[in-house]
Write a structure and sequence with these properties.
Oligomer: single chain
CATH architecture: 2-Layer Sandwich
CATH topology: HIT family, subunit A
Order of helices and strands: HEEEHEEH
CATH class: Alpha Beta
Strand order of the largest sheet: 1-2-3-5-4
Strand content: 15-25%
């Protein structure tokens, strides 16, 4: 992957029917690799690789879009809870160095013991094999974890 290649930057402006809401700084879309039914991502429109680089206006905008994602999910589904989070840096599992926040609906019984929440996130979180199999052209965007 070259330093100037970024999946979320490259897909900007494409006719993406998966975008369900947007504002000046972020958009919400259905995740291509959902860990649960209704999983959405809130993606920065600008190439920002770290949550910690957001200014106050962008933070408010992000919060607004997280709520829009929740509203979108609840229009069609009836989740019992949510995990909301992001992977900050390669060591934390960030596979595309572009800020995106996961809004993951959770359902009673989706795993045997949900205790620990994000410390024990849903199985199947490593989607890189799915990308290689289903969308091999996207593998160039994924930062190697080794």
């Amino acid at each position: 992957m070259s330093l100037d290649e970024c999946f979320f930057c490259d897909v900007q402006g494409m006719d993406d029917k998966s975008i369900v809401a947007e504002n000046e700084h972020f958009y919400v879309h259905d995740s291509d690799f959902s860990v649960s039914i209704g999983h959405c991502e809130v993606v920065s429109k600008d190439h920002i690789n770290s949550f910690f680089n957001l200014n106050s206006e962008q933070l408010v905008s992000l919060y607004e879009m997280i709520n829009k994602a929740k509203e979108f999910i609840e229009e069609k589904l009836d989740p019992d809870g949510y995990n909301v989070g992001l992977n900050e840096g390669k060591a934390a599992g960030q596979s595309i160095p572009h800020l995106h926040v996961h809004v993951i609906p959770r359902y009673n019984g989706d795993i045997d013991n949900p205790r620990g929440g994000v410390r024990n996130i849903l199985p199947g979180g490593d989607y890189t094999g799915d990308v290689a199999r289903d969308m091999p052209d996207r593998t160039r965007y994924i930062t190697p974890q080794n």
